[in-house]
User: What shape does this take?
Amino acid sequence: MLGKFVRVRITNPVGSLNRQYGYRYSLNFGSLEGRRQFDNRFAGAYIMGVHHPVRHFDGRAIAVLYREGERKGILVVAPKNMRFIGYQIADALAFAEPEGTYRLECLYERSCGAVVCRRINGEIRLLLIKNSRSAHWGFPKGHMERGETPEQTARREVLEETGIHIDIIPDFTAKSDYTIQGKVEKSVTIFLAKTEDTETIIQREEIDDYIWLGFDKALETLKFENDKAILKSARRFMDKHGIFETDD
Assistant: This one.
């Protein structure tokens, strides 16, 4: 259902009162139109990205909310040119849906991480990790959380996954967009970073293994072309700006 375009008939517009629970709607809420097969799957739909009352709305399903103990889900729908990620959706729904009382499946995800480098025995090595979910080698990264900048997310995720503190090198950013299992549209921002830490302690709940490799071997080890392109771009940047030359 995620990513599908739907039409919603608004039954509870912005500003209207929910008499049962006593709150006013911060979002338009309504029922799906025109597709009877949805009747047994969804109990309604919230509209994001529209801040005034409307009667009908055509948009894209960007999330499904499943309340505890309820079989039917509730869609979250937005204009096709707007993207909202998990914590943004949770914030918008907070007037009616307290966090911790539901599960949210989202169309869009945003993650941040880093190409982490350090000098080992005179050679520049790069850190790759093997995620337990994908079993492929890649860069440490993870989802943005409420109130974070992309740089803060990258620092936190690298520290959580590997126990390593990093210094982000200015003026390098790489982006990668891809789809997971044909459903979730993911956008990843990767920074370039140095570390002086010598001990790597992986997060066993999420990471199976880690390895420090030179550029050529790291390029061979990476599976996805997006990651390989990021690594090549990082190497060109390091060569151009003489990164690590001042460490000699």
